[in-house]
Every structure is written in C-alpha cells, then in structure tokens.
Design a protein that fits this description.
The chain is an alpha/beta fold. The chain contains three helices and five strands, in the order βββαβαβα. The protein has one domain: Transcription Regulator spoIIAA (2-Layer Sandwich). It is globular and about 30 Å long.
Length: 121
C-alpha cells in the first residue's frame, strides 16, 4: 500500500515477521491522518512486530514528532514488538532536542525485534 501527499509518502510492506512502515519526504501536520491510518492498520494486521522506518524522511515538524510518539503508544497497546529505524541527521536532531532519543527504540535496519521494542543486535 502506497499513500502519497505532495512530497510525503507512506509505504507499507509486510512479511511473516513484521509490518514495515517507511516514511519519506516531508512529514508535517497535513500528513498526520494518513500516517495514523497506516499505523492503525499495521497494528490490526501485523504479524507481531511493527517497524517504523524514518530513514527517507527529509523533514519532520513537532506535529510529526508527536504523531510518532502516539504511534509508539498505539503499537505498545496492541501488544506488538516495535522498532524505529532512525532518520537522517537533521531529522534525528529533532528527537535530540525533544530528549526523545532514549525513549524510542532506534536501531539499524538489520536489527531483530523482540516484544516491547528491544532490538537484538
């Protein structure tokens, strides 16, 4: 499933281990309802794990940051394992300003997931 709005896109891919949501382009307030719908759908049908890949984001505002926190909470509430793949440096800087880097399970694309979002190297 691909959803496009301007330069922002959401791509979902599922395999037997995880449902991966890849965000690309500029994530701002105008994109949030589409992002929230993708997360809700992944929580409903994912095989136990959800990966949120931020590596292709070019922009993230505070509304997008808040939506990512809410996605984490929704994934936890659905008893899914979860993992966040970090964005580019300028996107990750926002997480640093918000003191969020230690509060979200950021890892690399090859990491394995366990329940609760703790990556296994």
């Amino acid at each position: 499933m691909n959803i496009r709005t301007g330069v922002f896109s959401i791509r979902r891919e599922a395999d037997r281990d995880a449902d991966r949501i890849t965000l690309s382009g500029e994530m701002d307030l105008a994109c949030l309802s589409r992002f929230e719908a993708a997360v809700a759908d992944a929580c409903r049908v994912a095989p136990g794990n959800v990966v949120l890949d931020l590596s292709a984001l070019t922009f993230l505002d505070l509304a997008g940051l808040r939506a990512i926190y809410q996605a984490r909470d929704r994934i936890i509430a659905s008893d899914q394992g979860f993992l966040f793949i970090p964005g580019p440096r300028h996107v990750q800087r926002l997480f640093g300003f918000a003191d969020a880097t230690g509060k979200l399970p950021f890892a690399h694309a090859g990491d394995l997931l366990v329940s609760g979002g703790e990556p296994l190297a």
